[in-house]
Specification:
- The chain is an alpha/beta fold.
- It is built from eleven helices and ten strands.
- The chain has one domain: Alpha-Beta Barrel (TIM Barrel).
- Strand 4 and strand 5 form a beta hairpin.
- Helix 7 packs parallel to helix 8 and helix 9 runs parallel beside helix 11.
Length: 337
């Protein structure tokens, strides 16, 4: 199979009209926080058990088409000895990998951040591919204020995303491009839309400059939301502002937009996705999910680190995946919860 055929096959396996992506790529410090909240110690074994149980959820592959894994997960096995990337693929869930190395202050960026991890990326990707990863994810983050992100922050972060995506495609790995505009703050939904539009316009300019094939990538953006410290916007308002920004900035060649949940509650993230799909009209892209906490939080709460709660945990995950699958078609209603 050629590199191009590999990319096209992964897109075919991941993009359809009812499934989404599970983000299970929490770094070790982040998953420790999640486990602390349910009074469970974060050890290599507890993380292995938790993630293997997520991926062995019966029928999960009916609603989830891809899973983003953390590095250590690629080498871990299920309770019966199946490598976790293979466990996912047994349900036709494509395994992928988070490849960025976290953020640092951008010099001259007046508080803006830049993501680390380009050094040695090609070598790491080649190793991850051997272990079963077929796509990758890289996240840049943008905080919103009256002065941030700066023009430098917007251009520098776009350049990083484009360079990462180009390296991925050279190796036959589909890149998920994640420019996350953060909900933190008291900005209006109009200010958030303005920032998101500027960020996405610059990202796609950089992707073209680096000859990234738009047909063989997935975009993982923020929905357009007011800051957390402001009133909650209605799903209809979120949908209207989000679609307006995407229609102005995201080329039709992109096969799928898979939203991050970005601090929304599980039901809020589903309601907003539902409204977006109800309003999408003839939008050229699939409008789906790449949720982490908004899929996993109910599962974590059902599990609480106890083996006897395995089935309840899996049912909680499956329920959220089902609700978001309905939302993909604009068919979700609260009474289905």
């Amino acid at each position: 199979m050629t590199i191009l055929q590999e990319l096209e096959q992964t897109i075919t396996d991941m993009v359809d009209d009812q499934r989404g992506i599970l983000a299970a790529d929490e770094s070790t410090p982040t998953i420790k926080k999640r486990f602390d909240a349910i009074n469970t110690e974060s050890t290599e074994e507890s993380r292995r058990k938790y993630r293997s149980w997520l991926l062995s959820t019966p029928d999960l592959g009916d609603y989830i088409s891809g899973v983003i894994l953390f590095e250590e997960t690629l080498d871990q096995n299920s309770d019966d000895g199946v490598l976790l990337p293979q466990l996912a693929w047994n349900q036709k869930i494509v395994p992928g990998i988070k490849v960025d190395k976290g953020t640092a202050l951008l010099p001259g960026g007046q508080g803006d951040l830049i993501t680390k991890g380009l050094d040695g990326l090609a070598e790491r990707l080649a190793e991850y591919k051997q272990k079963g990863a077929r796509f990758a994810k890289w996240r840049e983050v943008y905080s919103v204020s009256d002065s941030n992100p700066t023009p430098l922050g917007i251009s520098a972060n776009a350049e990083m995303l484009a360079r990462y995506a180009a390296v991925c495609q050279e190796l036959g790995i589909v890149p998920i491009v994640e420019p996350e505009v953060l909900m933190d703050g008291d900005h209006t939904i109009e200010r958030f839309a303005e920032v998101n539009e500027a960020v996405l316009a610059e990202v796609f300019s950089a992707l073209r400059r680096h000859h990234v094939q738009l047909e063989n990538m997935i975009l993982k953006p923020s929905m357009v939301l007011p800051g957390k410290e402001r009133r909650r916007a209605s799903p209809e308002e979120v949908a209207e502002e989000t679609l307006k920004v995407f229609k102005r900035t995201v080329p039709a060649a992109v096969p799928s937009i898979n939203f991050l949940s970005g601090g929304q509650t599980p039901t809020e993230a589903t309601e907003n996705l539902n409204a977006i799909n109800q309003l999408k009209g003839n939008a050229p892209w699939q409008l789906s999910i790449s949720y982490g906490r908004a899929l996993q939080q109910p599962a974590l709460q059902a599990w609480c680190g106890k083996d006897e709660n395995r089935e309840a945990m899996q049912q909680a995950l499956l329920k959220r995946a089902q609700m978001n699958s309905l939302a993909r078609k604009g068919l979700y209603t609260a009474d289905k919860e």
